[in-house]
Specification:
Layout: H1 2-25, E1 35-42, E2 48-56, H2 68-77, E3 102-110, E4 113-121, H3 124-131
Antiparallel strand pairs: 1-2, 1-3, 3-4
């Protein structure tokens, strides 16, 4: 009789462990993950990071970005084409013609897909004039 109880108990433990393993394999959320690091760096190739911000957009906007909701909305508006973050430079803004490169990057996962985007500007004035206060890089 003891052997039957032990066998039934062992079978129950294996079943519970198997069910637990299956439950852990399920996705934690119904939303595709969207978590990125936005960075601004100086130098050719973006050697020195000047500032960076984390941003998670699903299921809710959060991170170290000062306005995660606006930044998530700006990224969502690109429909996955991050070059859309760039706009026509402000014609009313004059920038010096010196070369002091600034590199902006977006790295991480957007709506479940890995992304890595980079754009280089001639200088910080050209960056500001082209981004025109885009919420994604307003940090």
């Amino acid at each position: 009789m003891r052997h039957r109880i032990a066998a039934v108990s062992a079978a129950a433990l294996v079943t519970v462990a198997g069910v637990t393993g299956i439950a852990e394999a399920q996705p934690a959320s119904l939303y595709a993950p969207s978590a990125v690091v936005l960075a601004v760096a100086k130098g050719d190739g973006g050697v020195t990071v000047v500032r960076a911000s984390t941003l998670s957009c699903a299921p809710s906007a959060q991170g170290t970005h000062p306005d995660p909701r606006a930044a998530c909305a700006a990224l969502k508006a690109t429909d996955g084409r991050l070059d859309a973050l760039l706009s026509a430079p402000d014609r009313n803004r004059a920038c010096p013609m010196h070369y002091d490169p600034v590199v902006v990057t977006v790295d991480g996962v957007w709506q479940g897909s890995r992304i890595a985007w980079k754009h280089t500007f001639a200088n910080s004035c050209a960056m500001s004039a082209t981004l025109n206060g885009n919420a994604a890089f307003a940090f």
